[in-house]
Please model this.
Amino acid sequence: MKADLAQAIKRCSKPERVCMAVCYDEENSRSNIITLGWKMWTSLRPRMIAFSMVPTRHSHHLLMKEKQCVLAWPGEDMVKGVMLCGTASGRSVDKFKETGWTPLPARIVNTSLIEECVVNLECKLEHTLVTGDHTLFVASVVEGHVTDDKRRVLFTIKDEAHFKHVGSQKGYNFGAFS
Model:
């Protein structure tokens, strides 16, 4: 075993389920989508989840203002839109329009579900913590929605043999369970 922090982090961070946050943008009268890099469950009772975001992102401002969002897990067929939502700014781009995805009304929070996603969770912000160059958001999960179809959830992958490669863009590799 050798000391190599960069390689250790790289090897333990993939595969990872891709997740997006949807926040309401009152100024533009629309919901905005951002692709997230890091998220995790933190509690079952009550159901809570944490995710992080860079403070310079438009969605960070929206989430701090609205204190609620939808977390959405895309299917294996949504790679192109996932990349757009992670690289274009919602300040100037209507990401629902650009991706062709369908916004659906959430039941509890004031933003949209993404109809094409496999899972949508409605969340209310409980805590924030600045962790270096990201803010960690901790949210309670107040409602969940799941599709009836059998599409698999999208992952970012490295070279895992048990995953089917479904696309690559801008240095990211995407896959789904084989």
